[in-house]
Amino acid sequence: MGWFRGVVIVLGLVVIASTILVPASVPARGSDGATASSSASPAVASAPLSSPLLSPAAGSATPIAVPVGSFPDAVLVDTANDTLFVASQFGNSVTAIDLGTNQVVATIPVGSRPYPQAITFDLANATLYVANAESNNVSAISVPESSVTASIPVGFTPDALAFNPTNREVYVADAGSAEVTLISSATNTVVATVPVESGPDALVLDTVNHQVFVADGVAGNVSILSGTTNTVVATVSVGTAPGAYGAMVFDPTDGDVFVANTGSNNVSVIGGTNHTLVATIPVGSGPSALAVDLAKGEVFVANQYSNNISVISAATDAVVATIPTGSDPGTDGAIAYNPTLGALYVPNSGSNNVSVISPATNTVVATVPVLATPDAVAVDTLTANVYVADQGAANVSIFHLSAVTFSEAGLPNGASWSVTAGSSPVPVTNTTVRGKGVIELPELSGLLRFTISPPTGYGISSVTGRGTPTQSSANVTNLPLPLAVKFGPIETLTFAEAGLPSGSLWGVAIATPLSYGGPPAQTATTHGTSIGFTVVKDTWKFQITPKPGLWKAQPAHGSVSLPAHSVTKSIKFTLPTAAVVFHEYGLANGTHWQVNVTGPMNVSLSSNAATIKFLLVNGTYTYVAWNFSTLHPHPRTGTFTVVAPHAAPVETITYLTEPVSADPGAGAVLACPSTSENFAFGVSIAVPGRVLG
Fold this sequence. Notes:
- The chain is an all-beta fold.
- It is 0% helix and 53% strand.
- The protein is built from no helices and 59 strands.
- It starts with 7 loop residues before the first strand and ends in an 8-residue tail after the last strand.
């Protein structure tokens, strides 16, 4: 059964990942690194499919697919040479894909029906090593030449590989002959064969103590090899079928090794220094893949048969969370972790997708559809592109996730704030240090919706960044997306009115001057005398709306700054007025005369001059002209209406020596031009002999 097993190998690199978008090109690379993941499960392979994939579910971008050999079972990213290597079991080959163009650049035969399911890499001599389970050898491939430079005989059914950069030796677990073969990468020759227990099918390198742990799957124990003497220095009994799918991981923080026991549904913890069983931790059904989060001190366990992830605290050796995934997660050791981004990638071979998990919240933040039977995964250490081997489709699906970083300013030291985002929203909390705080989330590309929760007494002044974000959403289109969140104290902004009749309805609308990213606008109306807003300390634009009837607000709009905890802006309402002018004709200079006006306003004015002016609000009025001489005004009385804006008619009134029986001028409409607030109205009262001054 050994040659149907596989392992995840991560050597000499930083594994990272990142929101989904189609990577048309890959950024330039400058650092070394290689990641590998391998697995195997017998199935009928299909013919290669062309890219792109069928459109996945709404809310995620479409990964691209690159055809490779039949039944791809292991992937390795060589960042130094910009190449992805894919070992195909039934294709008896390794496919080389250019990371910049996502195009196949070479197909390298590696033996007669080798079922290659484990690969590793030596950066020093740019050589790739492939374990060929059925031909009982290891192929050494020169990366620059894209060809096999050596076929190295090993034991029966080589089932796992590990490279030790310290002594530059490749360790080969020979599942069929119960031994570990050591190959010098300098000479590509076997330098030692170390007997172990039955069924070795997983390897992990202890870089702290310079030793190699070998999971003996049939014997139910772990053999520990000294990297110096190449001898077994200890054997530790664990559970049933340990490391059956390469599920072993080393935690350099405390020097412990975690071993998934697929047959007994638990994880054994072995001390790297004392070589003793530290703990046995129950997990889900069929643990098949492991990954470690050094930042949080947690280990992730993919449980293939219970369709979930167990999260183990390395400090307490206990399960602290269980995360549901798709069907058959982590089959045959397929799992990858990105410590920089904080994202765990779990291929679900039964549901043909990849669960992306945020360790910050221990929730699935994205589900990425891929092709048939995803069974291996690796991550580019520089671009965060993710490569998934689709066994059932003979393709590699390529996608990536983006890092969305929220950095805050404006909060006091020790203040707590949080961001809730993603398809499975869970709040992530940060406590500021020296007035600064950062929350980083892995998110899908496209429109990201989020909620920022400030501490009590504070609000959000602005959210700024690429793509004009708002306070609740941003477009995630590339890696990474930094968002700057500015907080400010919550204050009270009050608008108080004067001048309106009691019970009049009026309102205020406020907004910030920011073109984007500022707090949302607010509106309020009242029948009272004041309106209060709770706002973040900032400058706010305001506009009086609605205005009651024809009343005029002063000021009707403007801006208000909040330098203190409470600010009141006074608004004065007045009615629009028109300048109504009465002219008389016929009276001797200096003769006293008077006009009484009644209507919406009741006013009496007298004068010795030829002109009397009233400031009147809109409405219909009755006037009476008076004379303190023997002359009689004509018309003596009349009506007029102030209506803005219209042209004003002129009515002539003549002072006569005898009264007349009718006033032909009564009923004039005095209208306001539209270009001014105060308007002149003319009712001419003329008597022969009077000259206007």
